[in-house]
Amino acid sequence: MTGRPQVVIVGAGFGGLATAKALAEAAVDVIVVDKRNHHTFQPLLYQVATAGLGVDDICYATRGVFHRQRNARAMQGQVVDVDFQQQLVHLADGAPVPYDHLVLALGAVTADYGVPGVGEHGFGLKNADEARTIRTHVLRRFEAADRTDDPQIAAAATTVVIAGGGPTGVEMAGGFAELFHRVLRRDFAELNLNQARVVLVEGQDRLLAPFSPKLSNKARKRLERMGVEVLLNTQVASATKSSVELDDGSSIPADTLVWAAGVRAHPLADRLGLETTRGGRVVVDDQLRVPNQPSVFVIGDLAATPSTEGDIVPQVAPGAIQGGRHAAEVIIAELHGATTKPFRYKDKGSMATIGRNAAVVQLPSGITVSGFAGWAAWLALHLVMLIGFRNRANVLVNWAWNYLTYDRGSRLIIEPDPVCLDR
Amino acid sequence: MTGRPQVVIVGAGFGGLATAKALAEAAVDVIVVDKRNHHTFQPLLYQVATAGLGVDDICYATRGVFHRQRNARAMQGQVVDVDFQQQLVHLADGAPVPYDHLVLALGAVTADYGVPGVGEHGFGLKNADEARTIRTHVLRRFEAADRTDDPQIAAAATTVVIAGGGPTGVEMAGGFAELFHRVLRRDFAELNLNQARVVLVEGQDRLLAPFSPKLSNKARKRLERMGVEVLLNTQVASATKSSVELDDGSSIPADTLVWAAGVRAHPLADRLGLETTRGGRVVVDDQLRVPNQPSVFVIGDLAATPSTEGDIVPQVAPGAIQGGRHAAEVIIAELHGATTKPFRYKDKGSMATIGRNAAVVQLPSGITVSGFAGWAAWLALHLVMLIGFRNRANVLVNWAWNYLTYDRGSRLIIEPDPVCLDR
Question: Complex ipTM, two decimals?
Answer without folding.
Answer: 0.88
